[in-house]
# Entry
Amino acid sequence: MQTNNLPYVVGIAGGTGSGKSTLSERLSQALPGEVVLIRHDNYYHDQTHLPFTERIKTNYDHPLAFETELLIQHLDELRAGRRIYMPEYDFTQHTRRPHEVLVEPKRIVLVEGILVLENAALRERLDLRIFVDTDSDTRILRRLVRDVNERQRTVESVIEQYLRTVKPMHEQFVEPSKRYADIIVPEGGKNQVAIDMIVARLRAVSAT
# Structure
């Protein structure tokens, strides 16, 4: 549980393309200088020891694809008022970048990712749990545009990955984690009413 003077940790989960990243960015913009954003995607396991042909076979939507233990350790450090060095992930190379990012503790910590609510130990570190709920057709179209434009993927590879791992993992792990949410936000960053309500809550926390 969160107490005064400790960072208030907010988990934002939801399926791929649901709008959770946009929601996280909107919340950060509403509270400039008071929020640090941690993306679970940065904690994908390092795969530099594997050839590229093996890296692309990884099931990136399974909980075991993430080094969640390191994320939990980093949250504990931030809650204790200490800086961390967060890994960065290169989605074009399917492995971590060689450098890390210095992250200073802030009053509010946002933790965003598809499986943020799936892990029990991680959930225990969250003071507020949000699940972004968006229609599956919308989500796959958003993912298709993102992966082609930002991650140098082909349309065929995005569709194949979605059918092989993304959809079944969503049904097995992501969707069931919705039951742990304190707040369910339809359409993520496009839901202005929900954003206003969450911002009001975070401003109240920040003022204490």
Summary: The chain has seven helices and seven strands. Residues 118 and 177 are 5 Å apart (CA to CA).
